[in-house]
Amino acid sequence: MIDTILYGLTIGAILYIFSIGLSITFGTMQIVNFAHGMVYSLGVYLFISFLPWTLRIFPLAMALAIAAMLPVAYLIERFIIRRLYGESLDYAIIATYAVLLIGADLIKYIWGTAPQPVSDPIGVPLVVLGVVIQLYRVVVFLSAVVLFFALRIFFTRHVIGKIVVAALEDRDGVRALGLDVNKYFSIAFVIGSGLAVLGGVLYAPITTSEPYMGFHILLLAFAVVIVGGMGNLTGTFISAFVLGMVIAITGRVYSSAADTMVFVVMALVLLKNPIFSFVRRLRGRPAHG
Amino acid sequence: MPDLISTSKLSKSFGGLVAVNRVDFQVPEGQVAGVIGPNGSGKTTLFNLLSGYFRPTAGSVRFLGKEVTDQPPYARVGMGMARTFQLVSVFNSLSVWENLVLSSFHRRQQGSRLGSFFFKPAREASTLADCRQALETVRLQDKAGVFTSELSYGDKRMLEIAIALSLQPKLLLLDEPLAGLSDHEIGEVLQLLHEVKDNFTLVIIEHKISKITDLVQRLSVMNEGSLICEGEPGAVLCDPNVRECYWGRETDAC
User: In A, residues 118-177, which contact B (CB 8 Å cutoff)?
Assistant: First the structure.
């Protein structure tokens, strides 16, 4: 049971770290950004390539991979995402999905299609209540918690964070303050992309990396963002762990249904309002009272 | 007085709908101008064009003698143009004071790097003093630490105006500042506008014409995207075209 809970917390941590950027892009720019999956997978492959060069020092290779992907993220924002502001949702999906496909093909071209395993950088097992768990997974979970509080401080104390939060609420209002809102969206986008790479690298020793890894996590992350509320950063944190636990528990009972259950939960959340109004109607109260 | 802001044949279409149609609109420096018109007549679209939120389909906007048609909203704010919105725009997730401090952020960023190194503390002190002054002007100083989400709609409107005032504008564009307010709150906002109107040029969109006839020196009337009448408020309200578009044909003449 403990290993199931820890697995859920680990998956939740990865989903949270990956989903932050997606949630901010959704909330501020109303853009469904599939390119986030490309940044994630390309970042992981760069990390795998950097590992031997950095004498297998995991944090160093991770920092290099994030640093290498930040300019790529900036270029995606500057030349693709920024042109999609205010355009129809379909254009954003088509354009960013194209970036995701290009990323997957680029990975296949450079690194091939074979899955790439990464060994556990800590490799220390812990015995908790007679169950062996990996210390690395505990570290991944704690990283997400630390990141959550660090981002909270950034978004509530730092002026750039406050501007992004204000823009999540009212983009035009921020413009009226004389602030170049696009500049702050760029900063938020690049930070979110850096976190996607961080999530990918932390996940690499738990799973195996393959060219289409970005597609899989994107679908789960969209569920996280929808359940948590688009642009709601605390909601994203909670929903990532709830859905992580859903994956872990379902996987233990019937592994084939693990991902499906995530979308069942998402569908229930989307149906929440109709369900609530149905319940209210049964009780004879007005639907929106 | 020279025109502080002027437009030339300004037009904006959304697909087949012409929202603003070849409008020539001028406001001399120091004037309080009103823009009235029925719902959907293009008043807010005109404001969005003046403040840079929309790019015009044709025509141009000049502000302080410079062509600003292609300037984004933040650049126009930097030149001294502030605006408020029809639906009050303040940040509920921040406190009243944080709303104001955010508005002063762009001014603290201005100037050269060397200049900001030497003068940053002085500039910060001066912009924060402007924020405090704006808060006192709208009589919200006692609520500085309150979360904006807890304010009444009238106080939110006052805060929005305070934010605009703290930007030290040369031109203030107010989009229906009385909408959604109680009679008491309307009185407070009007009193405030009378107190501050001499500090800048003011353009105000309003539906409640009777409330602003004392405030404005000139009225412009829009209908179906075009300016149909301009002039001194008394004369404009007696204009047969204006009376027809506002009250229909069956109205008595002035």
Answer: 159, 162-163, 165-166, 169-170, 172-177
Q: How many domains does chain A have?
A: 1
- Predicted local distance difference test score (pLDDT) of residue A167: 84
Q: Determine contact, residues B137/B195, Cβ cutoff 8 Å.
A: yes
DSSP state of B34: E
Query: In chain B, what are the domain boundaries?
Result: 3-247
CA-nearest residue to A171 within chain B is B89
Cβ neighbours around B207 below 10 Å, total: 15
Total-model pTM = 0.81
B105 and A180 within 8 Å at the Cβ level: the answer is no
Instruction: Give a yes or no: residue A283 inside a domain.
Output: no
Strands B201-205 and B171-175: parallel
A246 belongs to a structural domain: no
Residue B54 CB partners (closer than 8 Å, separation 6+): B12, B45, B48
- How many CB atoms are located within 10 Å of the residue A148 CB? 20
CB nearest A177 (choices: B53, B77, B92): B77
Chain A: residue nearest B149 by CA? A169
For B6, the token pair is 């002027």
* Sequence-ordered strand ranges (E) for B15-146: 17-23, 26-28, 32-36, 58-63, 66-67, 81-83
Which residue segment(s) compose the domain that A46 sits in? 2-216
The predicted-structure confidence for B31-86, as pLDDT tens digits, reads as follows: 999 999 888 889 999 999 999 999 999 999 999 999 999 999 999 999 999 999 98
* A163, A166, A176: residue with CB nearest B73: A176
- Is residue A231 assigned to a domain? no
Residue to mutate among B105, B130, B161, with most A CBs inside 10 A, is B105
Nearest CA in chain A to B174: A176
Q: Out of B83, B94, B106, whose CB is closest to A166?
A: B94
Mean pLDDT of chain A: 89
Beta strands across the sheet bearing B201-205: B81-83, B171-175, B201-205, B32-36, B218-223, B226-231
Band of pLDDT at residue B250, cut at 50, 70 and 90 = low
Q: Give the separation between CA A95 and CA A84, rounded to whole angstroms.
A: 9
For residue A251, is it within any domain?
Answer: no
* ipTM of the modeled complex: 0.79
The token pair at B209 is: 């014409």
Superfamily of domain B3-247: P-loop containing nucleotide triphosphate hydrolases (3.40.50.300)
Helices first, then strands: H and E counts in chain A: 12, 4
